[in-house]
Amino acid sequence: MKILVADKVSPKGVEYLRQQPGLSVVEAYGSTPEQVLGLVGDVHAIIVRSETKITAEVIAAAPLLKVVGRAGVGVDNVDVEAATDRGVIVMNTPSGNTIATAELTFTHILCGARPVPQAAASMREGRWDRKNFSGGELFRKTLGVVGLGRIGGEVAKRAQAFGMRVIAYDPYLAPSRAKAMQVEGVSLDTLLVQSDYITVHMPLTEATHHMIDEAALAKCKHGVRLFNCARGGIIKETALIAALQSGQVAAAGLDVYEDEPLAADSPLRSLPGLTLTPHLGASTAEAQESVGIEVAEQVADVLQGGVIRNAVNMPSLDAAALKTLGPYMELGQSLGALVQQLGPKQIDSLNITYWGRVIDLDANAITRAIQRGFLRRISGEAINYVNAPVALKRLGVQSKVLKSTDEVDYTELISVEAVAPDGTVAAAKGTLVGKTGKARVVEINNREVEVEAVGKLLIIENQDQPGMIGYVGNLLGRDRVNIANMSLSRTGPGETALIVINLDSEPSAETRAELKANPAIKMAKFVQI
Ligand SMILES: NC(=O)C1=CN([C@@H]2O[C@H](COP(=O)(O)OP(=O)(O)OC[C@H]3O[C@@H](n4cnc5c(N)ncnc54)[C@H](O)[C@@H]3O)[C@@H](O)[C@H]2O)C=CC1
Ligand SMILES: O=C(O)CCC(=O)C(=O)O
């Protein structure tokens, strides 16, 4: 399998890939978008840093592509939606450059307090100016951290070491985590009003775009100092320029920009209180080695064994998770395939319920396996754990997932129901039994059964009358189809009964037609799960 390394990553990472049996590497740095399109036709993986754009067009031009690995955090240069649609995993290396970026942020904060870059530039010009470059102290000042994640958290620690009071705004952070970091969680408005220094550390999203704009800056203390080493566009550049010119912002530091690379004639370049770096957050030898090796290992793991770590468009499945979740995912896939073949073609919702031990597991991965099983016969092999949820949504099928604590007869149970617009339901329940965790279907359409949740099944609903089992057995025997296991279920004498048979091979079309033509048989379905 071929891996295109499109941006320069650590040579150690590339070397790791070269040493893996069955993998070959093409290094092509600084390629134009047209050249990238020409290179991806036969690749199974692409590794990028932040320069190369993996657009929908690139993904469409790469029919074998399984995974895009980003040596870094932000995946803004990858069209994740297009990748997800195609079932391509997008993974990043979320922690390898945390310290490097936190340290660069702190360098900016220090340069905001003491104008070191400006003083250094004046020395180069041959001056000895001790009047114009005095600054302030960080000690006892308040630092407002917006986004208290990995990098924000490390910046907070460093600020505390400098004797700063640290407050933070992060709507998704559990209050206990802020408390553990001895950081005061506050509202955005409080942070803006109380901070002497503000630093932002979130991804660029609809909610964070221009979060720090004219209105936000007007709420700040006069002479506030502002820093962005996260993503351009979180701080509105035109608002920052105006605030630096008016003195509302005394100093600022930027590593990232609304448009990168920053235009040579950008007005940002000529503001005296502003220190600029060209997106250098992750540019340390240590961080690059770390993310380069991590991304290489992660991509090789996907190509070689299906182990998925740090995927941004599906749950991570490392070897330990796969060991635990694998049997449930297989059971889920079988149940999904079973209700799809059992039920009406058109459905408007796929309802999944989990009971017992399974509730404590990563149900997201099991849900995707059920959805994949359901879609496989409809959409073929192109459906995988990555694109199953979007493919289902595209069909107009709602996915409902419930975790129930109600008592059931099994220590763990998964139920899948396909509900048609007219209310018709096809339903199956399954569990794992015994020490080895064998997958069993234990209910079909509300009838208790017990059959292996794998292979070929014949499901017959018939009048509960003498001779039916013999009739079915004879018919299959005549067709040379061996019965591996059989389960019977009935609601009561004289009503309908359900016969579910594990078969070793597929019955012929004639046998199936004969079964369907029998007036005592209401339904006869052969399903492959
Ligand atoms: N300058 C550079 O070279 C680098 C930049 N980065 C960027 O730094 C940013 C942070 O990275 P990490 O700390 O690793 O990410 P993270 O995912 O650990 O932390 C992000 C935090 O932002 C919070 N958040 C999300 N939306 C928010 C909102 N609307 N308001 C406030 N908080 C919000 C999240 O709850 C989370 O705690 C990312 O944008 C990443 O791309 C990362 C590495 C290098
Ligand atoms: O690879 C780089 O230098 C950019 C790092 C970055 O911005 C990120 O990891 O989000």
From TrEMBL:
UniProt keyword annotation of Kinase present: no
Give the Pfam families listed for this entry.
2-Hacid_dh, 2-Hacid_dh_C, ACT, PGDH_inter
| Xref: Gene3D superfamilies | 3.30.70.260, D-3-phosphoglycerate dehydrogenase, domain 3 (3.30.1330.90), NAD(P)-binding Rossmann-like Domain (3.40.50.720)
Write down the chemical reaction(s) this protein catalyses. Answer: (2R)-3-phosphoglycerate + NAD(+) = 3-phosphooxypyruvate + NADH + H(+); (R)-2-hydroxyglutarate + NAD(+) = 2-oxoglutarate + NADH + H(+)
Which pathway? Amino-acid biosynthesis; L-serine biosynthesis; L-serine from 3-phospho-D-glycerate: step 1/3
GO MF annotations for this entry? (S)-2-hydroxyglutarate dehydrogenase activity; NAD binding; phosphoglycerate dehydrogenase activity
Using the record for this protein, list the coiled-coil segments as residue ranges, or answer none.
none
What CDD domains does the record tag this protein with?
ACT_3PGDH-xct (cd04902), PGDH_4 (cd12173)
Instruction: Supply the PROSITE patterns for this chain.
Output: ACT, D_2_HYDROXYACID_DH_1
Task: Tell me which family the UniProt entry assigns to this protein.
Answer: Belongs to the D-isomer specific 2-hydroxyacid dehydrogenase family.
Spell out the PANTHER family in the cross-references: FORMATE DEHYDROGENASE 1 (PTHR42938), HYDROXYPYRUVATE REDUCTASE (PTHR42938:SF47)
Q: What is this protein called?
A: D-3-phosphoglycerate dehydrogenase
